[in-house]
Every structure is written in structure tokens, then in C-alpha cells.
Model the fold of this input.
Amino acid sequence: MKLKSVSKILLAVLLLLVPLLFRNFNYGILICGFIGIYIIAISGLDLVFGYCGQISMGHAAFFAIGAYGSALLHKYLHLPILLTMVIAAVIATLIGALLAYPASKLVFHFLSLATVAFGEIVYQLVAQSPGGITGNFTGFYTDSINLLGFKISTNTRFYYFALVCVCGFLLMKHRLVKSKEGRAFLAIRENSHAADGMGIDVKRYKIIAFATSAFYTAFAGSMYAHYVRFISPETFSNRQSVMFLTMLLFGGTASLSGPIMGAAAVLLLNEGLRFAERYQMLIYGFMLLVVILLMPGGIYGIIKKRIDKRRVVS
Amino acid sequence: MLIQVVISGLVIGCVYGLIALGYSLIYKASGLMSFAQGDMLTLGAFLGYSFYGIFKLPFVISLVCVVLCMFFLGLFLEKAIIRTLLKNHVLPVYIVLATIAISYIIQNAAMLIWGTQTLSFPQIFPIPLVGVLGVKVQPEALFCILMSLVCMVALHIFMKYTRFGTAMRAAAMDATAARACGINVSFSTGVTWGLSAGVAATGGILLGPIYGVYTMLGAIIGRKGFSSAVIGGFGNMYGAIVGGILLGLVETCTSAYISSAYKDIISYSVLLLFLFVKPTGLFNEQALTD
Done:
């Protein structure tokens, strides 16, 4: 137990010191910021897929709603950015609930089709918006986050902001999955008929899972928008939704650390493949296939299996 | 104007129908969904371009070659990847992701081999335009409609009246019972994947001369094919065709009379509408209830 808390403190110190370690390597801090964004987005997807067992292949849509919602609210209503981020995430939550209401009766394959269609509709709306308010394919410029006069404009500042957000969201997720709602999610994932028989309102909890997940991903989307300060439709295509799922499955579902490892591993791999730009997607496709064939439990699954085995031995 | 719109609607609708037919075949035979069907169409178009445009083979021979190649590719993918995953008893999401990975691989391999530019598929017929009811259309467009219909009828006859087709339907209906009757279920599922790849490739060759050949040709068509399959009732072969033609007509009419910007939104909205309101589709296919 003591060893565990020591390693936890060490990890916290290490995370706080990352910008110092990468002092002369701004690019590294940049990537760490992105990893933070993706951890939040994928933790959201994990709530609906890993815990509640409902697939979503259109989570890029919530990412887009968060990003564009926040950027548009800031530009046209001149609201302060942190407020717009929250408003955009709340809007996404409502849209998620609205989508989940009729979608909750669909089973796996058809839910995936419905979410693909939803993702495409949002993508098309963003890419060919009425009156061109989103800037369409030329993209949309926005500002960085302003915390009561303190601008989060450098990578280091954003890193700390993301670190706080990640901790907050993970804590929220931890509390949620340990609560009554979280147990209902698991029951629905394991057997929705049995859950229904035990008095769990399956439809209601599916909607809650979907809406919460939309909140997470949309907030991550708004972080992305104000980090890069430029958004264009390509970031929110169905490829992004597949990327989310890949990261989640690569890291391992239904855990706190799975999304963290998945986001970091896939993002670093993608950055590492940049040298072979022409072959990047091809290699990515092959890697995806190999991972699916060889390690269906993800990184978390492998580590867990190791630990379990050691426990059995000792 | 109207006739032109209807003809182009029928052309793209028939291709949607062919793609949806592939989805229905696969879903009926194995209860799975392939997201690589659209890229099979792309690959078919590229192979057709190579055989017909570069190697200068006669069109019929190129068509047969392409369909054979794609048939074996589909068979191979089922045997090598899908069957392995099924044997490992993985979650269904991994199979969906595997087909997406296959689609990325096909897309990007095609890009590396044939380049990023839109290639123009050489004409199939010596005359550039023919008159139909007072409007001039590409003969390839009419050929596309005709060939898709022939394809559908041929597939119908194969499934309904041949020994092997009957065995395939039996395997799809109840794998265990079919196995007890001495049907090689694993082989017939493989053939189903092969057939749907072949059908998609045919769609690609038919569409090539009209739309040109490029790497993203099938990506959108593949996703729209889902709409047509759901409209007709997922798993229903005739529903797939009817749904495809309906979707094609709706789409071209919206882009002709309202705005082309919204045609994609409309087809995906139709998909959502059907899923939410009438998931069994026009033909009341019960596949969705399980």
C-alpha cells in the first residue's frame, strides 16, 4: 500500500514537471497537450462504450459541436471563452440525449449505423453551413482560452490547464462509475434484458450514458478549438470517430487508465509515422488490423492479465 | 430536365442498390456488417481501369477478370481475417473495426498504386451520346442501369434456383441445422463475402465511365449504401435494390431542385428516420429484432 502511494506521488510530480523536462522541446509539450484533450474525449467514449456497452461511431460529431459551438459563441456573442466551452458542452449533452432517446432501442450494428449517420450530418452541417457561419472548408480562426485576464496562449500554460481538466474529468468519471448510475451501466452492458428485469430503467440509463459521454467529448472538442486556434471540417470527419474508437480499444475499455494509455500510444504512433507521410494511413490501417488480431484486450487488458497471473501465482 | 434527373438518379441509385445488396448478403449470411464495401467498389473501378484502359482487354473480359479478382479478395478477407476474429470470440466492434482497417488499407494502397488524380475511364461504347425521350445521355449510364438490373436478377436466380444458392440461404438461416445437413457453412459464408465484393466491384466498373475513377469514389457511396439497405429493410435483397433506387432518385431530385449542398444531409437523415421510426424498412424485414 505504501509503495502504491509513493508511486502515485512520484507520478504526480513527474506530470507537473513535464514542461520543465521538455524545456527545449516545445513540440513535446504540444503533443502532451493533445494527449490531454484526447484523454478527455476518449474517457467520454469509454463511458458509453466501455461501461454501458453502446457503440458510437459518430463521436467526432460531439467533438465538432464542442469546438464549433464554443468558437462560434465566442465570435458572435462575445462571451468569455471558458463560459462558451461549458455552454457548448451542455448543448452537446442535450443533443446527445436527444439522439439517444430514439437510438436507445437499436442494437449494436444498427446503433453504429445511426451514429455514423449522425456524425455525417454534423460533418456536412459544419462543412456546408448555412450562410457560411462556420467558415466551411476554409476553416475558422478563434482565440485562446482567457482565464479572467490570464491568457492560456503558450503550450506550457495549456499543458497545466489540460492537466487540471483531465484530473477533474477522470475524477468525475471515477465517481460516476462507482455510483448507482455506473452499476446500472455495467448491468446494461452485461445483459440489458436482465437489467430490465431487475428494475433498471434501461432506456433512461442509456440516455444518461450517451449524454454524459457527449459532454466529455464536446468539452475536449472545445479545448482543441482554443488550443489550435484554428478548426476546419477535416478534423471532424468520420476518420476522427474511428480514431477515437481505435485509441479506446488500443488502451483498453472500462477503466480509468485505459483511455490514458490509448490516447498517448496512438497519438505518439501517429506522430512517429509522420516521417512517412505518404504511407501513414496505410501503415495505420495495417497496425489497426494487427492490433485487433493479436491484442483484443488493449494495453490495459494485457497488463491486467499479467497482474492477475502474478496474483494467482503468489 | 426531369428525365435527365431521373436517369442520373437511377444510375447512382442502382449502384447504391448493388452496394446495399452486398451488405444484405453479408448480414444474412453471417450477421455481420462490412464497412469495406464502398472501397471494394473503388478497387473494382481501379482494376477495371487497369484491365480495360491500360492493358486494352475487351470490356467483357475485363469485367469478368475484375469480378473474379474481387471475388477471391472477398473470399480471402473472410477466411484470413473475419474467420480468425470469429474464432477468437472477440466483441463485434472488433470485426467492424477490422473492416474499417481493411477499407483504409484499400484506399491508401489504391492511392499509392494509381495516384491521387481522378482518372478518366475510357468509353465503353463508340458513340458518345444517345437520345432517350428527347434528352441526350451517356450510353454508359443506360448500360449501368441495365447491368445492375441484370446483376440483381442473376443473383436472385443463383440464390433461389441453384443448388449452391439454396445451400447458402440455408447456412444463413440456421448455421447449425445447415451443418447437420452436410452443408459446408464456413465455405458458403466465404463465398457470400466474395460475392458481395464482386457485386460491389461491378458497381465500380459501371460507375467509372460516368464519375471518373478516384480513391474516394467508394467511401461516400459505401456509407450511403447503408441508407438504401436500411430503407429496404436490412438483409432483404430486393429491399436493398428498391431502397437504393429510391435513395438515388431522392438525392438527385434534391440536388437538382433544392440545393446540392444538402443532398448528403438528406440521405443520412432518411437513414436516421428509418432507423428510428421504421427499422424494419419498407419490406418489413425482421432481421433487426434480434
In short: The first strand of chain A starts at residue 140 and ends at 141. The interface with chain B takes residues 49, 55, 57, 102-103, 105-110, 112-114, 116-118, 120-121, 124-125, 128, 238, 242, 245-246, 249, 278-279, 281-282, 284-286, 288-289, 292-293, 296 of chain A (CB under 8 Å). Chain A has a mean pLDDT of 88.
